[in-house]
Design brief:
It holds the Pfam family Glycos_transf_1. Helix content is 42%, strand content 18%. By secondary structure, the protein is of the alpha/beta class.
């Protein structure tokens, strides 16, 4: 690419090294010859990393200030760049989309999640207003996406929904980067009786049900990596009878995550059946698969549709600790089964459930919008 096309990715919500935005999309575009700028709001300063120029508009003191002021600061910075393509990632930035459209640049909305359905799960929003707010947000989102160049989505449901208002929509699923994970070559006989979870720890991500399941275990341990959403939730988990079989590891760096996975027979991904999770793509499931370990996952139709034929996961009712325990026991006591499931899962990710395939879809979409 002789005359580099300038692409500006925008976010006031996500961290600067966000896996989807920076690691996968921005770095990938830079490697393809695009001039890539990422505008963030974290107060950590400006830098150039892996071919991506990162501009920082400062860190807001809270959610309210971010919502009411920082979109204006970000818009001013974005317009100064004069980019050929503006690619924004936060629903709260929908309001600046019409201003970006006026520049005659390509404007893309990356819908990571189903915003109207997600609102229904937000504990900080009073229950009485969740449904009407959800409906209003859907009307507003549909109105804005009708005016922009295109939308990047992550699920078939979102694809179908946005196609009603814009014919330029593509599904780019958030599958893992193969280079980020190495094969788990630890012999099953050398593994402990461990299952694991690593990531953000919250109620809707199933922490209480996972811990409660461990009360039925007599020879297994649950390795828990990550930070609790709040102190009250941690207290509830500790109060469970199953906590005696939990090893809390706290936040883990990449090497520590690798060590945990090497010790584990299976990884747990047991999101509760909220509207926003029923049809999401559980990235963690594919990360476990790529690491070569078996998976115990929530029994949702879309999740089954994705990987059931790969025969690499046991599906359970995520709200039933006893059923979760039965699945754990099955894999811990049958290492041959766990090993074969892990091998099949890794093979499936290497062949199809990986970012390299999704990146091709994103690049093709960029080319389509430019032509």
């Amino acid at each position: 690419m002789n005359n580099k096309i300038k692409v500006c990715h925008l976010t006031t919500v996500h961290v600067r090294y966000d896996t989807r935005i920076f690691v996968k999309e921005c770095r990938g575009l830079a490697k393809q010859g695009y001039e890539v700028v990422l505008i963030v709001a974290d107060g950590k300063g400006e830098e150039v990393k892996d071919g991506v120029r990162i501009l920082d508009i400062g860190k807001p003191s809270g959610r309210i200030k971010r919502f009411f002021r920082f979109h204006k600061i970000l818009l001013k910075k974005a317009l100064e760049l004069g980019a050929d393509i503006y690619h924004f990632h936060d629903p709260e930035l929908l309001r600046i989309a019409p201003n970006l459209v006026k520049t005659n640049s390509i404007v893309i909305y990356d819908a990571h999640e189903d915003l109207p359905r997600q609102v229904l799960d937000k504990a900080y929003i009073p229950k009485l207003i969740r449904k009407p707010l959800s409906r209003l947000l859907e009307i507003y989102e549909d109105y804005i996406v009708n005016k922009i160049s295109g939308i990047v989505t992550v699920t078939p449901t979102l694809l179908d929904r946005f196609l009603r208002n814009n014919h330029n929509v593509v599904e780019v699923r958030n599958f893992p980067l193969i280079s980020e994970f190495v094969e788990n070559n630890t012999n099953q006989d050398d593994k402990g009786n461990y299952v694991c979870y690593v990531g953000a720890i919250s109620k809707v991500r199933g922490i209480l049900n996972m811990v409660n399941a461990m009360q039925y275990e007599t020879g297994s341990k649950f390795l828990l990596g990550g930070r609790f959403e709040n102190a009250k939730l941690r207290e509830m988990a500790i109060a469970s009878e199953g906590w005696k079989n939990v090893e809390e590891l706290g936040f883990l760096n990449r090497d520590q995550v690798k060590e945990m996975l090497q010790k584990s027979v299976a990884g747990l991904v047991l999101l509760e059946p909220t509207p926003s999770y029923l049809e999401c793509i559980p990235v963690k499931m594919f990360e476990y698969m790529l690491s070569g370990i078996a998976v115990i996952a929530s029994d949702y139709p879309y999740w089954r549709e994705l990987v059931q034929k790969e025969n690499c996961a046991l599906f359970v009712d995520p709200m039933n600790p006893k059923e979760i325990s039965v699945a754990i026991k099955k894999l811990v006591e049958n290492r041959g089964l766990a090993e074969e499931m892990g091998k099949r899962g890794r093979k499936a990710v290497l062949e199809k459930f990986n970012w390299a395939n999704e990146e091709k879809a994103l690049l093709s979409f960029y080319n389509k919008l430019r032509n």
